[in-house]
Amino acid sequence: MIAQTHSFQAEVAQLLKLVTHSLYSNPDIFLRELISNASDACDKLRFEALHQAELLEDAPDLQVKIEVDAQARTLTITDNGIGLSREEAIAHLGTIAKSGTREFMNRLTGDQKSDAQLIGQFGVGFYSGFIVADRISVESRRAGFKPEQAVRWSSAGTGDFEVEDITQAVRGTRVILHLKEDAGDYLQAWKLKGIIAKYSDHISLPILMPEEKWQDGENDQPGQMVATGQWETVNKASALWSRPKKDITQEQYDEFYKQLSYDQEAPVATTHNRVEGAAEYTQLLFIPSKAPMDLYNREKAAGVKLYVKRVFIMDDAEALLPVYLRFVKGVVDSSDLPLNVSREILQESRAVKAIREGNTRRVLSMIEDLALNEPEKFKSFYHEFGAVLKEGLGEDFSNRERLAKLLRFASSTTDTLSVSLADYKARMKEGQEAIYYITAETQAAAARSPQLEIFRKKGIEVLLMSDRVDEWALSFLHEFDGTPLQSVAKGAVDLGKLQDEAEKKQAEQAEADFKPLLERLKQTLKDKATDVRATTRLVDSPACLVVQDGGMSMQLARMLKAAGQSVPGVKPILEVNAAHPLVRKLESADTAFDDYAHILFDQALLAEGGLPEDPAAYVKRVNALLT
User: By C-alpha distance, which of 196, 274, 183 is closest to 232?
Assistant: First the structure.
């Protein structure tokens, strides 16, 4: 059939231009990507052959072959995996990548080293071949198809690619790179073997190259490497996790992690274990040093790959770790699951439940070890992942106490996220009966909140919480080590033994003396506040807003509303400082009373991060009183 010419999709054309001109500081990455693609093709065939053994045809041994032709200046990567149909060649190699070429383009920063690590993460690794090649040909036949149903795809990496039907006796894919003039190093076997050893040594199927042996020269002629006509395996051809821990260096673990995650930095912690018991499996798990940009997307794919008896089953096996540990990367290889495992089996299997629980315990142990023995690493970890760790308070009841011990907060005595609940409890004042905290949109807003005034006056530490998840998470943690947690912005302030009798009597007297004024305020603000009462929690401010114990805070209501969720109306309680001049002035106010009342409420709302319901009316009232 005559070759047909197609145009690349716009995003792919743009990507190719970047790849060929500016993206990579390390061109060796292309071989890693093409070998990874070949390995994935073999994994897919192995999995499909569990149901259709005939797909293996007469070649059940899966492998990748790499060979060079110095005369033709070509480098060829061949696999006998699943292969491509004509339609798949057009779809996969010419249009937007399934995992998001457009998103890949949006994530580019201009930092060559950083950007290079994104290539495989977004499924566009094939295009990295154009770093070293000015033309690429792909010849492929899908497993189960007839020899005459093979396809050849070719492109010079510009705006077009050609597709034609060919005949190919064997299944699988052959990627032929026509190397650029400055890419001659990749015609050297030693160069290719070095790259394979660095990036692809763990690939769990053999990577073969033509065997060469040294032959001494004769009659004063120099010696040279001579092909033997045999193939040799140039990688260890064993999955890293299946090897004994004592035989693996930390550098090898780090390199495997980088290959697995497309991260350019080493992990902050690694664990590798063979687990026996309710379920038998091997776990190799990593905690990254930096959070991905989509960390807060709870729908994002998990980072753990599932193998069964070293047969790849699926990427992103979300059933193997709870959602709040979605930042963990790694591999789990089970001996107990059936090879034809499905997502339904993953959701229901008792063995998978045991693996999930074991993985969770192991990850929490890694984090606890950082907290106990490597405080600087733990500080860095918590800065990156502390917010999502808190999600576990509401999702993982069995590990709630362990998670609570790992939480760190700023407080009214320190700006850094360094205060644990145990630290706080150890320095509670004598007679203090609760762990006090406040939530706000920012740490600065929490620190400046009027609700803290009485606590500062008495030298009582208050934890400052400003992560979006805090209020939701804390609703599941009512006490720590027997001491209740109390929001200073909910309910009446009760300092228990820390409040002397004189203060209590003063508060009761203020409530009685101001009863007519409080009733009038309550009537004026009935559409905004559920109650108005005198308070002892304020020292310098005239008023503040609080909500009932167990009620939804105004901050949480604003967050939910901003997220597009339906939120019931939240009417707070206005607490006024009877000793403040502005409140005293209300007693003598007559015609301006309503304006003063609304200004008092709106200023309290502003102080806790909200906005007046009618900003224009607020400004008008203030201007009227100032002129």
Answer: 196
**Residues 6 or more apart in contact with residue 312 via CB below 8 angstroms:** 43, 46, 47, 204, 305, 306
The Cα 404–Cα 434 span in angstroms is: 16
Q: Which residues contact 422 (CB under 8 A, 6 or more apart)?
A: 405, 480, 481
- Rounded to the nearest integer, the mean pLDDT of the chain is 84
- Asked whether residue 65 carries a pLDDT value surpassing 90, the answer given is yes
Name every residue whose Cβ is closer than 8 Å to that of residue 497 and which is 6 or more positions away in sequence.
431, 432, 433
What are the pLDDT digits (tens) for 578-587?
A: 888 888 888 7
Question: What is residue 247's DSSP assignment?
Answer: G
Return the minimum-mean-pLDDT range out of 313-322, 350-359, 499-508. Answer: 499-508
Report the C-alpha gap between 136 and 34 in whole angstroms.
12
Please tell me whether residue 165 adopts helix, strand or coil conformation. Answer: strand
Distance CA(424)–CA(210), nearest Å, equals 66
Do the beta carbons of residue 461 and residue 427 sit within 8 Å?
Answer: yes
Place of tokens 């990627």: 175
The full DSSP string for 189-218 is: HHHHHHHHHHHSTT-SS-EEEEEEEEE--S
> Encoding tokens for residue 18?
């970047």
